[in-house]
């Protein structure tokens, strides 16, 4: 089995009911084709680079999973048919995933969600170099 990531963009006004229905569909495809879900991240609503179906914003999701090629075809077919999904792209991350490494990936994804963000230190300030003065004075 191989590890894949699928990023998909939905309508920005996606309700919780629509999202749970979409998530159930994805989970049923994964279980039906013996795939393993590592994580499903909601990246929130972001501005699109260009309009897609008259939308300037979209809600982004990252789906990280281990599966065979037949699952990919079925998942992409369902995403293509869904009216809620504007765009999607699947990328192969790793060729061979062993059961031991799969468990480690799932534990790391669970620990990543449970770990609170460290906000004790403010972000480092970005310093911009000043432009050198122009030689020869200003032109009239």
Give the topology, please.
Elements: E1 2-10, H1 16-32, E2 36-52, E3 55-67, H2 69-81, E4 85-94, H3 99-114
Antiparallel strand pairs: 1-3, 1-4, 2-3
Output the keywords.
140 residues, alpha+beta, Alpha-Beta Plaits, 4-stranded antiparallel sheet, 4 strands, globular
CATH architecture: 2-Layer Sandwich
**Poorly predicted tracts of residues:** 116-132
Question: What is the fold-level CATH name, i.e. the topology?
Answer: Alpha-Beta Plaits
Q: Indicate the mean pLDDT.
A: 80
Helix content: 25-40%
Structural class, please?
A: alpha+beta
Number of domains: 1
Task: Tell me the number of helical segments per DSSP (H or I, 4 or more residues long).
Answer: 3
Strand order of the largest sheet: 2-3-1-4
In this structure, how is the largest beta sheet organized? Answer: 4 strands, antiparallel
């Amino acid at each position: 089995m191989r590890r894949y990531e699928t990023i998909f963009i939905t309508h920005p006004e996606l309700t919780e009911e629509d999202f749970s229905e979409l998530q159930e569909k994805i989970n049923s495809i994964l279980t039906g084709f013996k795939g393993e879900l590592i994580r499903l991240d909601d990246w929130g609503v972001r501005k699109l680079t260009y309009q897609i179906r008259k939308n300037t914003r979209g809600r982004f999701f990252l789906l990280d999973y281990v599966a065979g090629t037949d699952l990919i075809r079925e998942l992409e077919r369902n995403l293509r048919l869904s009216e809620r999904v504007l765009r999607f792209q699947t990328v192969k991350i790793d060729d061979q995933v062993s059961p031991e490494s799969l468990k480690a990936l799932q534990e790391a994804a669970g620990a990543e969600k449970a770990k609170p963000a460290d906000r004790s230190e403010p972000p480092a300030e970005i310093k911009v170099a000043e432009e050198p003065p122009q030689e020869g004075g200003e032109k009239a």
